[in-house]
């Protein structure tokens, strides 16, 4: 039994779930600002998402537990760096009164009729999915849930979470029968550095509802938010699987690339050259070997299946093992290189270039740079570390490194340089000039970014996937 058609919630906002208003009327209500929206989580993905929702609906309250984030947004600014256009877009949305931010999630939930969840979904030390933040936010939403409301989860979730966890939680804590509110999973398929472009419509939007009406509503909502196609799949669990499959495909593919890359020495070929050539026909898309797989997405998503389901997942597990071994492999390429140059690692000084998990994104979760620093430090080397993209050097200092400014390392002298993350700012660095006078500088190129140094006088080049 769905809620009444054009009935309204206590605050006068139109019901959306179960409304038998024609789609055009619902679209008009949504884009006319009659449906208050709350977006929970204003991080790398949440702030761009809230901003695009504000552009479309004109009536968005962003919720974040970080008071600094709330203050910054309400001043019309973005704390998220490296997102072209985001600062201006946030400023315009706030100036237009289309976007405000608050730390009071319950008040926002009371006022909203469309609730969007985009908070972190991480894994714990045992690699178990950690849904504590998502369930906390669902509890907050439940406190303000009304018949006719719609809840959309955009945070990446283990398949079945909407059906088996969020739906019963919202119903029991919200006191609203599940037949009277909607819940859909509509994954965020966005890369940092191009978030606005992606959210606005770089790719089709996947949506899946816990019931038919939720799926219908999600399709209508994202028909307004995303200029690309909206692909409605059978249900929320299918949509959750789509997102996790995308990430698992990438992790397994990178695992293959890394395993192939480790053949470079014995094959005596540049494996990345072979991969690029192999990829010139449409049935091959081998990814790139590298120093490791970081971020809170690709290394985490396989565990949303491995840990959550009983089915044999040895391929996903093996790919995880291969990728998790790459930081040690990279560090050992440096240690081995030093020994080749007659340098005892315990007497060596090593410069690590790049600490964030990938270029341009200030995110350290699962970064391969940390285990690389740990491995080098435990071999007794003096480690300097530099990355202009992040100012959070504390984890690397705890691991034994001295975190330096890029300007300071230019005239340093090192026995080895290890490039882990190829920040654009490193373009200006004359790496060979960092070496000692009386022997070759060991260069370990973790991202095939320094291949021009291969064969250079004064440089002992070791490229992951290139010649090691
Ligand atoms: N970062 C990425 O490239 C992508 C991330 N995703 C997914 O999006 C989700 C969010 O990821 P990010 O935005 O990168 O995370 P983030 O760590 O950049 O931001 C999370 C934000 O949520 C806030 N927060 C934490 N607890 C909260 C609570 N109880 N209520 C309200 N706000 C709270 C934090 O203060 C922070 O501002 C994750 O599920 C992730 O898997 C999906 C696609 C791309
Ligand atoms: C399937 C897919 O491409 N997912 C994207 C991914 O973005 P993310 O920011 O995690 O970056 P990424 O390019 O996957 O890199 C992750 C890690 O893997 C490494 N990496 C990446 C590609 C590669 O060929 N080799 C490699 O070693 C990177 O250095 C990085 O440490 O995960 C995002 C997410 O879901 O959070 C997703 O929205 C993005 O579209």
From TrEMBL:
GO terms assigned for molecular function: NAD binding; oxidoreductase activity, acting on the CH-CH group of donors, NAD or NADP as acceptor; UDP-N-acetyl-D-mannosamine dehydrogenase activity
Catalytic activity of the protein: UDP-N-acetyl-alpha-D-mannosamine + 2 NAD(+) + H2O = UDP-N-acetyl-alpha-D-mannosaminouronate + 2 NADH + 3 H(+)
Xref: NCBIfam families: NDP-sugDHase
UniProt entry tagged with the keyword NAD: yes
Classification via SMART domains: UDPG_MGDP_dh_C
Species classification: Archaea, Methanobacteriati, Methanobacteriota, Stenosarchaea group, Halobacteria
Domain UDP-glucose/GDP-mannose dehydrogenase C-terminal: 351-452
Protein name: UDP-N-acetyl-D-mannosamine dehydrogenase
Protein family (similarity comment): Belongs to the UDP-glucose/GDP-mannose dehydrogenase family.
GO biological process: polysaccharide biosynthetic process
Pfam families in alphabetical order: UDPG_MGDP_dh, UDPG_MGDP_dh_C, UDPG_MGDP_dh_N
UniProtKB keywords: NAD, Oxidoreductase
Enzyme Commission (EC) number: 1.1.1.336
The keyword Nucleotide-binding belongs to this UniProt entry's keyword annotation: no
